[in-house]
Design goal:
The chain is of the alpha/beta class. It folds into two domains: 259 residues, Aldehyde Dehydrogenase, Chain A, domain 1 (3-Layer(aba) Sandwich); 176 residues, Aldehyde Dehydrogenase, Chain A, domain 2. The protein has a seven-stranded mixed β-sheet, sandwiched between helices. The longest helix has 26 residues. The protein is globular. It binds nicotinamide-adenine-dinucleotide. It holds the Pfam family Aldedh. Its main location: cytoplasm.
């Protein structure tokens, strides 16, 4: 299904390689080289994408700059109308895009469809929100500042930044791409997308939906290739006016190398789940399963460490184990709960954390089992701070439980992390929940629910190594604009009388 029907032109039949998108057309790279995309389930090459050259990046930057100048002159209502059109096309063609997500990143089939539909909704929401917030400015008068008469009128508006570079991660290659594309476009910017290798073909299909919606040529581009060849070249390119990145530690390196441009960085997390004695343990167990194991734990906001009061730890672990035993394990095509992790190196990394915990005496609630990239869900009890898994992000279906004797111990563990994305607290006492939430150094705290990124219009931000800036539809639109003031200087003060 993928690469066929309306998507035929994005695929080069002669070489069996997907094309890249620049200047409003689908192209084959002059490098003559391709990058393989390995299906995590079969561990065989499933798709190939173009290995673009630095020369091609330069051309994309040029056309992107030219296209932005015209786009900025396109009325806001028209920009919004085009986004609504792209959203509808995206949702209409959810099936072939979802199929790519199943094959490239082993996302369970049902979740893959949900990702595409959610992405369409996000694009539409950006159109609506952009019309409201960009259609409004500010009007200031000079007489509020001491020593001034009412002789200056200041008109403040939000204007585009220019060319926005978007780099999403593998785990939501469509949703986390549109969460950058749509705010950039509604705000009058052009956009260059560098998709993750795993997920690139889903992203190319998604970009084609924008192409079909009729956006002007050059306004959106999608460059594929090896990070080593074009990664730094793109992020340090003088033509880039803003970088919106989601991913792991790579983002820290990019932040240090990038020029003087606004950065939006959504990085890793080690989301803590603090469980008090009075918590509803059935609710906690359900949220630990959903939060810790959905998409095999490969979510930035997955529950990545449970900090439970000793007095209720046995009961909670028993409830979670009962639910773990019901999780289905297998291929994404069968909609299994636990599917292969994205790559062999990722599976090896997870295994390293598990073996370290074993050596240091963690209690294995299930037998550790792995077949290729498929890792069976595992709860590790009695994890101690000296174990790597107490601090590191496994990005897999392995969840550590640390037993605590005071709430302060839980807060301390959460705050000692170099990450600060989200956290959650389970208690029936709302006053305690507020105090604990305030004490947790994280961008968001969820009370009585697992961490989550959505709904997509909520602000979303990480502290410390978890990021810079805030996302969510409104914040992203604002972030992708700058303020412009126009001051009208009157020859003599003027005061309105009514
Ligand atoms: N905070 C959030 O919102 C959020 C959301 C999802 C995932 N994540 C994080 O993402 C990580 C998993 O995703 P990943 O493995 O794709 O992350 P990653 O950092 O390995 O890659 C992210 C993106 O950067 C690109 N990249 C790699 N090297 C580059 C370079 N030198 N220059 C430019 N781009 C380069 C990759 O191709 C990919 O598109 C986890 O740490 C997870 O917590 C964070």
């Amino acid at each position: 299904m993928a690469g066929t029907c309306i998507f035929a032109e994005i695929y080069d039949e002669n070489t069996n390689v997907y094309k890249y998108y620049s200047d409003g057309a689908w192209n084959v790279s002059s490098s003559g080289k391709s990058v393989p995309i390995i299906n995590p389930t079969t561990r065989k090459t499933h798709y190939k994408v173009q290995a673009c050259t630095q020369e091609e990046v330069n051309k994309v930057m040029e056309s992107s700059k030219a296209a932005q100048k015209l786009w900025a002159k396109t009325p806001l209502w028209k920009r919004a109308e085009m986004l609504h059109k792209a959203a509808a096309i995206l949702k209409e063609h959810k099936a072939p895009i979802a199929e790519c997500l199943v094959k490239e990143i082993a996302k369970p089939a049902k979740d893959a469809v949900t990702e595409v539909v959610r992405s369409g909704d996000l694009v539409s929401y950006c159109g609506e929100e952009g019309v409201r917030i960009l259609g409004e400015g500010k009007f200031l008068t000079s007489d509020s500042f001491p020593g001034n008469e009412r002789s200056k009128y200041c008109l403040v508006s939000k204007v585009p930044l220019g060319v926005v570079l978007a780099i999403p991660p593998f785990n939501y290659p469509v949703n986390l791409a549109v969460s950058k594309i749509a705010p950039a476009l509604i705000a009058g910017n052009s956009l260059v997308l560098k998709p993750p290798t795993q997920g690139a073909v889903a992203a190319l299909h998604m970009v084609h939906c924008f192409h079909l919606a009729g956006f002007p040529k050059g306004l959106i581009s999608c460059i594929t290739g090896k990070g080593s060849e074009i990664g730094d070249f793109l992020t340090m390119h003088p033509g880039v006016n803003c970088i919106s990145f989601t991913g792991g530690d790579t983002g820290i390196a990019i932040s240090k190398k990038a020029g003087m441009v606004p950065l939006q960085m959504e990085l890793g997390g080690k989301d803590a789940c603090i469980v008090l004695e009075d918590a509803d343990l059935d609710l906690v167990a359900a949220n630990i399963i959903k939060g810790g194991f959905s998409y095999s734990g490969q979510r930035c906001t997955a529950v990545k460490v449970v900090l439970v009061m000793e007095s209720v730890a046995d009961a909670l672990v028993e409830k979670v184990n009962a639910k773990v035993s019901k999780l289905t394990v297998g291929p994404p095509e069968d909609n299994c709960d636990i599917t292969p992790v994205v790559s062999e190196s990722s599976a090896n990394f997870i295994e390293g954390l598990v073996m370290d915990a074993k050596q240091k005496g963690a209690t294995f609630c299930q037998e550790y089992k792995r077949d290729g990239n498929l890792i069976w869900p595992l709860l590790l009890d009695n994890v101690k701070p000296e174990m790597r898994i107490a601090w590191e992000e496994p990005f897999g279906p392995v969840l550590p439980v640390i037993r605590i004797s005071t709430v302060e111990q839980g807060i301390h563990h959460c705050n000692a992390s170099n990450f600060g994305l989200q956290g959650c607290v389970f208690t029936r006492d709302i006053n305690k929940a507020i105090l604990i939430g305030d004490a947790m150094e994280t961008g968001t705290v969820q009370i009585n629910s697992a961490p989550a990124r959505g709904p997509d219009h909520f602000p979303f931000q990480g502290l410390k190594d978890s990021g810079i800036g805030s996302q969510g539809v409104t914040n992203s639109i604002l972030m992708m604009t700058k303020i412009k003031s126009t001051v009208i200087n009157l020859p003599s003060p003027s005061y309105t009388m009514g």
